[in-house]
Amino acid sequence: MTGPGQVRPVALSEVFATTVTDAAAMGFVLARLPKSAAPVLWVQDRLSAKEAGQPYPPGMGAERQLIWVHVSHSSDALWAMEEGLRCHALGAVVGEIWGAPKALSFTATKRLAMRAEAAGVSCWLIRRAAPPEVSAARDRWRITSLPSAPHPHDAQSPGVARWQAELFKSRTKKPGTWRVGHDRAADRIHILAPGRDGAVAAADGAHRKRAL
Amino acid sequence: MERWQRQMERTGNAPSEDLPTALVADGPHGQVIHATNRAARLAGIATGARVVDMRAVCPELRVEYADLAGDAQALKRLSLWARRWCPWTVVDGADGLILETTGSDHLMGGEAAMLTEMEARLSTLGLSARLAVAPTWGAAWALARFGPVRAICTEESCAADLHALPVAALRLEAETVLLLRRLGLKTIGQLAEVPRLSLTRRFARSALEMNPPMRLDQAMGRLAEPVASVEARAPILAQARLPEPIQDPTAYVPQLCEEVCAQLEHQGLGCRQLHLVVYRTDGEVRRLEVATAAPSREPVHLCRLFQDRLERLDPGFGFDLITLEARRVEPIATVQTQLGGGGEGGVPLSHLIDRLTARLGPRAVKRPQLRESHLPERAAVWAAEQGAGATAVQARPIRLLHPPEEVRVLYAVPEGPPAQFVWRRQTHRVVRYAGPERIAPEWWRDRPGTRLRDYFRIEDQAGGRYWLYREGLHEDGRGGDPRWFVHGCFA
Prior knowledge:
The complex is a heterodimer of chains A (212) and B (491). With 212 residues, chain A is α/β, with parallel strands linked by helices.
């Protein structure tokens, strides 16, 4: 198991977007979805779709099958995600929940996590405008956009996307902060350099590998 | 006979028309004559007689086997072909067609003209036909076989037209006809004059084919005999009649689902649409409708589709009859997915979509359909079915705002990207940009005056990557100053 580049975490993971309009969290989730033809159930509540936009398939890679569920309440979104986790034919279940609704309690996340583990389907929660309250998610990430890599041919234009991925709570891995780049053509994440986080920066690669 | 003649002609070894020929079928006491040609009829060959007897009458008779199954097939095909005249046709016995022409005769210029046209059309197929129009099935049968050529009979003239026909015209069995002849009742008119009471007593226990009064009633239209078309399928329906009006149908739905599924399984079908109707005691009817993504006949699954919706049913003062009907049915084949016989773990994908659709509504569950369009919002639309189309060549954002949100911009150069823009009360300074990518309006779909769009991929000082566009150009004659919108976000 490696850090952010790990392919298939079969559990519930939470991703927090630092700002509402930042699509880095979604890009991070997309890059880590299993690379299979199995359809992805994408559940959005109304505010997420209104404030942060809808997923746009031409930009997400057209070969990925998508089932988009658009509901008005977060409780319905959680119900739809739980239903999706009963279906083993899905590749992944992604939910976008706005804020910190009552329905998304510790119990609800625990249910999601256990269902995801039982079904072997990875489940992702994208949270916006939400404080990181107590949750049963196995991994909790905070993703922020960084200025992109220089474009190889055009100094003016934005290049490969770069994010700061902060794993601030995890059950199986050691938390840390990484600066990662997203290679869109190969659809993979690579670690650029250790961030300014002291603990991670002090440890060398061997130590981190063992701890993770 | 005519079908056989045409087949023989096609193979090139058709006998001469003048040679008496007969088709035979196996009877209980040896072969009997099934059909004859004109020469054989003139030679005195009777249909239904034994072949050995007829050989004695006409030694040069040529005998061939009749293809009864083939005849039945051909008649069925002909009944479908006869839908050119009316929409409701059905095969009648081994040698007849019934066409329900009510309301369609005027299209051919009246009933007489219609019969003439039918005869002409059938004769081009090489078939001779005896036609009659009558208000009932029985009367039409009788007039076509025993009545005048192209008989037309109305409601009023029905009794008079049938009066002189023999009793065999009532679609009775030979023994019953013989019995009636022995009783001295040779025509339908004579039969109708016999007091009804004694006739009914005589034939009270007999089946329909041996029951002259009932056959007479059918011919006169006193006993209904509907024409059931070949395509009309009996509804797949289950009912629960309740002794007392109740408010909550939940307890009855599983049983109804099981009954419907048993019927579906019997016919090898699966339902796509289920209607649950409750008949309320106050004279109102309330219905619920669920649909499935793939044909299904699993009672547990179908029952679960109703689970969350039964509470939305308005029961009023209660209801005492519940019906469940499979409206749209499709054939499904039973497929074994694993060698061991067990299914895959978990719920099938179609069941998941059904469950989501049933609870959240059909508009909440959608799949992307990619279309060939340059306009981003038209290139991918959300629909009920997944559809593949052209994929974008240019860089496209992963999120799209719907609708695009207008921003205030500060220009650096009029035709270039903005230096800075204010979106949702936050100022974003443009650090890097790519573009413009010009997307012209689709003139064949858009209203006149729609402005073109220049898209820019923009990165702000914090690393946020957005997709902005300028709608229109300066002084393009389509409105005032161009406006700027945010349309999406890149990862």
